[in-house]
Specification:
Strand content: 15-25%
Shape: globular
Largest sheet: 5 strands, parallel
Helix content: 25-40%
Order of helices and strands: EHEEHHEEHEHEEHEHEHH
Distance between the termini: 5 Å
Number of helices: 9
Structural class: alpha/beta
Strand order of the largest sheet: 1-2-3-4-5
Length: about 280
Amino acid sequence: MIYLNCEVKSGLGEDTFWTWFKREFPSSTFEVPTLLRDEDIILRYSTLGFLPVEGKQLALCWEMYPQMKELFSSNQWDNTLKKVYECARYSTYRTVATEASVSDYSQYGSVDVLPIAVNTDLYRPLDKKATLRTKYSLPLDREIGIWIGTSHPMKGYSEVLQYAAHHPNVHWIIIWKWEREALPMEGASNFIQIPQNQINELLNCADFFLSTNRLRSYFMAEWEAMATNIPFRVLGNSNREFIPSSSPRGDLFDKGWDRNSAKKQWESYLAIRGVKW
């Protein structure tokens, strides 16, 4: 049995790792176990801390708090970091999404790299830019840039404003995840909490994706943008785990971040550890 211990299964009704995993491994459960057999495992989101149940546990160390603390030299995340490190330290196994995060947790033992997985069937090139621009009342005769994020400083929204000031001819699509954090840009086309299919359409309206991420690791929104094959312009952290090529969608498949590849990696990983599902 695979036990799925998440912080949020799907905050906005989107198809997340958790909902995808439950479909692909239908015998898995969101129940919290009180007893584990040898063939069981808990996939525990690291911000929940360690679960004091004897048996195999896999800490999903996906949050970027170690990188945030290093970048901003701040103590504001220390309480959460304490739980994250507790989960990493006492779990049987640890996993991160990409190589860029391995060093953040290696002091607690071996760290495995497993993808969160991108829905490349949903996020994909649509090849109808003019039609989609008309649908969303976007200009047909201007270069359009797109940015997706929140007002958290690690997302780098201030750099979007600076870039826009130096490129006044660019029209902007700005997509905010949360209404409470939205800082709509004047003169831009602003969207808040929209469905995934609309995000894909808006990505297909734009000429480039502006990545202002200030951390080493990419965010899921950036991986999803890569799946649409939109060109990237990278600002923010110059020490990124990699810079997308002229074919970002190809990069994603090469790294095994599509869901088909990810499922095979997860199946192999769990099987080697004696997990049955």
